[in-house]
Structures are given as C-alpha cells and as structure tokens.
Design a protein that fits this description.
76% helix; two-stranded antiparallel sheet; 2 strands; 4 helices; mainly alpha
Length: 112
Amino acid sequence: MNQAINRIGEVAQNWVAVAQLATDTHWVLTMRLMGLSGAWSLPDGESQAMIGEKIPAFTEAALSGTFAMMSGGSPDRVFRETLEPISSKASANRERLVERGPLVFGRRVSSN
C-alpha cells in the first residue's frame, strides 16, 4: 500500500512538472512574440539565442534521461531527469524576460 502511495506521488510530481513547463513555455513564447512585434523589451540577440539554445538543452535532456535509464532508474525518474534540463532553461528564460518588461511607445515601462 505504501509503495502505491509513493508511486502516485511520483506521477503527480511529474504532472506538476509538465504543467509548469507548459506554463513557462507559454509565457516565454508570448514575451518573445511580443518582443519581435515591438511590444516587449528583448535583449540584443534574442532571436538568435532562441534558436541556438534548443540543441544544447535537448541534448542535455537526452543524455540526462539516458544516464538515468542506464543506472536502472524507474520510468518516473527517467522522465523527471529528461524533463529537468528543458524545464530549467524555460524557467530561466521566463524569469529573464519578465524582468525586461513591456515597451510603451518604444520605451521600457518602469517597475517603480
């Protein structure tokens, strides 16, 4: 019984991680599209960075999941290890872009 409860907890944690990744991805995409249209402040080179960051993040995710699998990890652990590098990158991007803020008439809006 205790093992079943632990399993349910692991599955729930994975679904929460997926939901957080989906939310972070949504906001990053929204802010980048707004930035490309001139409504959000983006750092120089953001359009190149959003292309260039994909291969390293997905490579790290594949390697992390592969190592977890090869070390005998459960499917839940392999999933979590695979998701973590992508989730970390999406979360960091969201935090970084939120700090930049929107543009109004071509100027950054002050948070004060």
